[in-house]
Each structure stands twice: as structure tokens, then as C-alpha cells.
Automatic annotation (TrEMBL):
<protein>
    <recommendedName>
        <fullName>Phenylalanine--tRNA ligase beta subunit</fullName>
        <ecNumber>6.1.1.20</ecNumber>
    </recommendedName>
</protein>
<dbReference type="InterPro" id="IPR005147">
    <property type="entry name" value="tRNA_synthase_B5-dom"/>
</dbReference>
<dbReference type="GO" id="GO:0000287">
    <property type="term" value="F:magnesium ion binding"/>
</dbReference>
<keyword id="KW-0479">Metal-binding</keyword>
<dbReference type="InterPro" id="IPR045864">
    <property type="entry name" value="aa-tRNA-synth_II/BPL/LPL"/>
</dbReference>
<comment type="subunit">
    <text>Tetramer of two alpha and two beta subunits.</text>
</comment>
<keyword id="KW-0648">Protein biosynthesis</keyword>
<dbReference type="InterPro" id="IPR004531">
    <property type="entry name" value="Phe-tRNA-synth_IIc_bsu_arc_euk"/>
</dbReference>
<dbReference type="Pfam" id="PF03483">
    <property type="entry name" value="B3_4"/>
</dbReference>
<dbReference type="InterPro" id="IPR009061">
    <property type="entry name" value="DNA-bd_dom_put_sf"/>
</dbReference>
<feature type="domain" description="B5">
    <location>
        <begin position="273"/>
        <end position="348"/>
    </location>
</feature>
<dbReference type="Pfam" id="PF03484">
    <property type="entry name" value="B5"/>
</dbReference>
<keyword id="KW-0963">Cytoplasm</keyword>
<dbReference type="GO" id="GO:0006432">
    <property type="term" value="P:phenylalanyl-tRNA aminoacylation"/>
</dbReference>
<dbReference type="Pfam" id="PF18262">
    <property type="entry name" value="PhetRS_B1"/>
</dbReference>
<feature type="binding site">
    <location>
        <position position="332"/>
    </location>
    <ligand>
        <name>Mg(2+)</name>
    </ligand>
</feature>
<feature type="binding site">
    <location>
        <position position="336"/>
    </location>
    <ligand>
        <name>Mg(2+)</name>
    </ligand>
</feature>
């Protein structure tokens, strides 16, 4: 989970009360925010919080303070933000790679070192939670007094554009930024052959999303008026991100002003801070939680969660703050009531019906397979079911479209955002981590993978697989074939083998396993390019088989 470091004095200033260390350690976990540690840095106390990915509004001290004030009852109910008119316009000129943009102006923000650090940290945390490491959303925060409206968001080629990016001293073209600048090198893969650029009325470059801002609009402690741009590939994510940022700045005393984004066929005014409205019933909440709260008690809990509610015709109409992007279903209201009712008030109950447990048949089969593999001199490893596109697909030489796998909406880490479709890549990653160990190495894993299946409501189907790899200087096809055939023989599986072409294996040294007319797996010698992609140096053979 992402962590944020908060100066205790700054937190106290925003909450408007003194907070003892013991009080922080007791109360914040009860509202779903873990306190990792409290330590001193430069003679000042710092609190490190661990934030659940579903609450990106808690990724700043302003959001934490707002939520905490409601949780302990200082300030409850929906917090409304005034948004004033401005003459700022942004013209969007057919940007294809990152087609969506949202703007806002926040004036009169008193920025000191703590506030500046908070703004930068919030920007970076949002980049890799909602933004998926800038792939989905990128944020630019600028000194508004250095540029003039109207602004233009467009894609350009190399000609005619040069500016000094942040953390640089000389002008660069967009191509030079991608080749020489630290951020350009890191995020170059997010841009194709044309470069998104945000310009002001006078042709000054504010930003080159999603790479870097221009130095002209760099925010300092002297800045008072902030211009925020959010660009991306998902309209909802762009709008949600903007709402989280501007409400955090408003909690610092800033004043929010509207902007008008003008597309070819529509105009949109940002930010939209009107509360969303969803409904539930007291009966649903009580049944979900096993409680017997009356309507007033439920409404009180929701108000502590910074929401308003109206009870009409047996239903609760709930007004959701614009920064709460985690409310998707009425069960989320039940969770909100549980948090603010107090988890410490729940008591356990024994189940009414007693049952006798038994090991699932599939798990019995998996246990038997483990015994076989251990008997074949393999060591079992256990990896996470979440990984990333680079390990699962790019390193394996697989050309896979986004619709062919499931990506986590709000990942705890950019390295763990895709549900694995295969075990074999993670075994190769395990070999990479342990390449300092002596050879040979023989490892296997039995676990769940998720594949796309439109016949399921969730579009995903979980299947159990086993995979194994062997690495040493003379590893070859015949060796892995003998291991696979021994496994299939012990499982009493009737099978046939046929030549198989797979990008991750060497042509002519890979075989498909067929049972009852269906392909259930494959094995062979791993392609040299795959081996190098995982920073390994010796021949590797491997297999993967569906157990079910």
C-alpha cells in the first residue's frame, strides 16, 4: 500500500487540535488508515501513514485531516466548496494519444515548505495510483501568474517547439527530452510519434504531458495562484483526479475558479464539485453489518464519513463528496457506517449451523502433484498472483492487447497491477532474483491464474495451473520432456504431444500437450531473448499445464 509522511504539526494545524502520539496511533487505524511509525526528522515529528488504494483522497495531509475531523465529530456532513467564475479557456486540438484534459485555477494558497512538499507528494502518489504510473492520468501544477489564457492543448511534431523542462538548464525539443531528460527516458514509452503540448496565449509551454512541466511555471513558496492540468486516456479518472487535488488545495484556504475546456464538438466546465447521489436502504445496511441501527444512527454515521443523507419513502438518498471516488456500490455505504459506528463495538457470534470441513478435491489433487514434483527434485515456490505487463508479456515476447488480461483499477503498487494469466513468467523472475545461487535450480509453482472469458459476469475465469523451470548450462528439451511425462504418467493422464510454435520458446524445441482432444499445456526450451530479458545467463527449460 502507498505510504505518506506527514508533519505532525501540519496535521494538527489542519485538524485544529493538539494530537498526542497515542491518540494518533489509536484513532487513525479505526478510520482505516494504518500508522506505520512516528519518528523525528530535523527536530520535527513525522507520522508515516499507510493508505488503502481505494482512498486516494487520503493521499494528502489535507484529505486525512478532513476525514479525521468528521470521524471524531469535529466537523460532520458534506463539505461544500464554492467555485467562482473565471475567463480561462482551454482549446483542445485533436489530441489522439491522451485525448482528455481538465483544468482548474486555485487562488490564494499560502505555500510554505510543508505545503509545497504536500502538493508534490500528492501529485506523485496520484500519478501511480489513479494514474497507473502516468499511463492513465498525468498531472501538471503551475504558477498561474506566469502564463495567460487562453491555453491550447495539442499534439505537435518536432518542428518549432523548444522549452526548458524542470530540472534542466537549457532548451530542449520534445524529442531531446525523451532522449536526454531523466523523466523523458523513464516515460518515453507513453508517447508515440507526436508530442502532447500545453501552450498559453503567448506560445509559452506549460507542460509536455505525461512527461514533464516547463520551468517557466515552476511552483515555489512565492507562488500564490495555482493552475492545475490533468490529462489522460480515461475521462472519469481525469475528472476524479482534478477533484481530489482542488479540494485538497481548498482545504488549505485556496479559492477555486472554473475553467472552460473547449473540444471540437463540446464544451465542458471544470471542476464539477457537485455531489453525486446514490441510494440504499436501512434494511440493507443492517443486514450487511448484522446490526439493528435506526435511521438516525445510520445518518449520523454517514455524516461522520462526510456525507449527507435524506430519508424518503423507506430509502436513504446519500450525497457523496466529489473527492470520494471509491463509492461504487451500496455495500460501500455499509462499510462507511461500520467504520464510523466503530469496529470495536462489533461482537462475534457463533454460527447457528455446525458443519464439517473437508479438503476440496482439486486441492487434494494439487497436494498429490506437489509430492510428485518434490520427488522429481523440484523446490516449490509461491509468487503473488499480481504482477505487471513487463514481466508477464513483454519479457516473454508476447504481443498481448489490454482486453486480453485483467488490470487492477486501484493497485497498491505499479509493480502489482495485472492479474497473472500464466505462472511461467513469475518463475523466471524468481530465477532472476536467485541467480547468485548455485546451479542447477529446479523450481515449480501451483496456483491460480485468471483468463478472460466473456461467458462469466466478471469476464474473468480462474484456472489452476502448475509450471516448472530448470536452469543449468546443459538444460535441454529432452530433460524437461522427461519431467513432464513423469508427471503426466503419475497423474494417469492420457496424452499426445505435437510440435508447437510459441513466442516464449525456441522454434522446433517446444511441444504442446493434448489430452482428450484439448491442449492442456506446453513445454520446451525457453527462447534466448526471454532469458536475456530476465537478466539470466544459462539455458532454461520449462513447462506449464492446466490442472483442471
Amino acid at each position: 500500500m502507498p505510504t505518506i509522511n506527514v508533519k505532525k504539526s501540519d496535521l494538527e494545524r489542519l485538524v485544529n487540535m493538539d494530537l498526542s502520539d497515542a491518540f494518533i496511533e489509536e484513532k487513525f487505524p479505526m478510520m482505516g488508515v494504518e500508522v506505520e511509525e512516528i519518528f523525528k526528522e530535523d527536530c520535527e515529528k513525522v507520522v508515516q501513514f499507510s493508505i488503502n488504494p481505494n482512498r486516494p483522497d487520503y493521499l494528502s495531509v489535507e484529505g486525512l485531516a478532513r476525514g479525521f475531523r468528521g470521524f471524531i465529530g469535529i466537523e460532520t456532513g458534506l463539505k461544500r466548496y464554492d467555485v467562482y467564475e473565471s475567463d480561462i479557456k482551454i482549446y483542445v486540438e485533436d489530441v489522439k494519444t491522451r485525448p482528455y484534459i481538465a483544468f482548474a485555477l486555485v487562488k490564494n494558497v499560502q505555500i510554505d515548505d510543508a505545503v509545497l512538499e504536500s502538493i508534490i507528494n500528492l501529485q506523485e502518489k496520484l500519478h501511480w495510483t489513479i494514474g497507473r504510473d502516468r499511463k492513465k492520468v498525468a498531472i501538471g501544477i503551475h504558477d498561474a501568474d506566469k502564463v495567460e489564457s487562453p491555453f491550447y492543448y495539442k499534439e505537435v511534431d518536432e518542428d518549432g517547439i523548444k522549452f526548458i523542462p524542470l530540472n534542466a538548464e537549457e532548451e530542449m525539443t520534445p524529442k531531446e527530452i525523451l532522449e536526454k531528460h531523466e523523466k523523458g527516458i523513464k516515460y518515453a514509452h507513453l508517447i508515440n510519434d507526436r508530442f502532447p503540448i500545453i501552450l498559453d496565449k503567448n506560445g509559452n509551454v506549460l507542460s509536455m504531458p505525461p512527461i514533464i512541466n516547463g520551468i517557466l511555471t515552476k511552483v515555489t513558496t512565492e507562488t500564490r495562484n495555482l493552475l492545475i492540468d490533468v490529462t489522460g486516456t480515461d475521462k472519469n479518472a481525469v475528472e476524479n483526479t482534478l477533484n481530489i487535488i482542488v479540494t485538497a488545495l481548498a482545504d488549505r484556504g485556496g479559492t477555486i475558479f472554473k475553467t472552460e475546456v473547449i473540444y471540437k464538438d463540446e464544451k465542458i466546465t471544470y471542476p464539477n464539485l457537485e455531489p453525486k447521489i446514490k441510494e440504499t436502504t436501512p434494511e440493507f445496511i443492517n443486514k450487511t453489518l448484522g446490526l439493528n441501527l435506526n435511521v438516525g444512527e445510520i445518518v449520523s454515521c454517514l455524516r461522520k464519513g462526510r456525507m449527507d443523507s435524506i430519508y424518503e419513502n423507506g430509502r436513504l438518498k446519500i450525497f457523496i463528496p466529489p473527492y470520494r471516488v471509491d463509492i461504487l456500490h451500496e455495500v460501500d455505504f455499509a462499510e462507511e457506517v461500520a467504520i464510523n459506528y466503530g469496529y470495536d463495538k462489533f461482537t462475534g457470534e457463533y454460527p447457528i449451523i455446525g458443519t464439517i470441513g473437508e479438503v476440496n478435491k482439486l486441492e487434494k489433487k494439487c497436494d498429490f502433484i506437489r509430492e510428485i514434483m518434490i520427488g522429481l527434485d523440484f523446490y516449490e515456490v509461491v509468487n503473488l498472483t499480481l504482477s505487471n505487463q513487463k514481466i508477464l508479456f513483454e519479457n516473454m515476447r508476447l504481443d498481448v492487447d489490454e482486453k486480453d488480461y485483467i488490470e487492477v483499477l486501484k493497485p497498491a503498487s505499479v509493480e502489482h497491477r495485472v492479474v497473472r494469466t500464466s505462472i511461467l513468467p513469475l518463475l523466471l523472475e524468481t530465477l532472476r532474483i536467485n541467480k547468485h545461487k548455485e546451479l542447477p535450480q529446479r523450481i515449480f509453482e501451483i496456483g491460480d491464474c485468471v483468463v478472460i472469458d466473456e461467458n462469466f459476469e466478471t469476464r474473468g475465469r480462474t484456472i489452476k495451473k502448475i509450471a516448472g523451470v530448470v536452469i543449468h548450462p546443459t538444460a535441454n528439451f529432452n530433460e524437461i520432456k522427461s519431467y513432464v511425462e513423469a508427471l503426466l504418467r503419475e497423474l494417469k493422464i492420457n496424452y499426445e504431444l505435437e510440435s508447437y510454435k510459441h513466442p516464449s520458446f525456441i522454434d522446433g524445441r517446444c511441444a504442446k500437450i493434448i489430452s482428450n482432444g484439448k491442449g492442456i499445456g506446453c513445454f520446451g526450451e525457453i527462447h534466448p531473448e526471454v532469458i536475456l530479458n530476465f537478466d539470466l545467463e544459462h539455458p532454461i527449460v520449462g513447462f506449464e499445464i492446466e490442472i483442471e
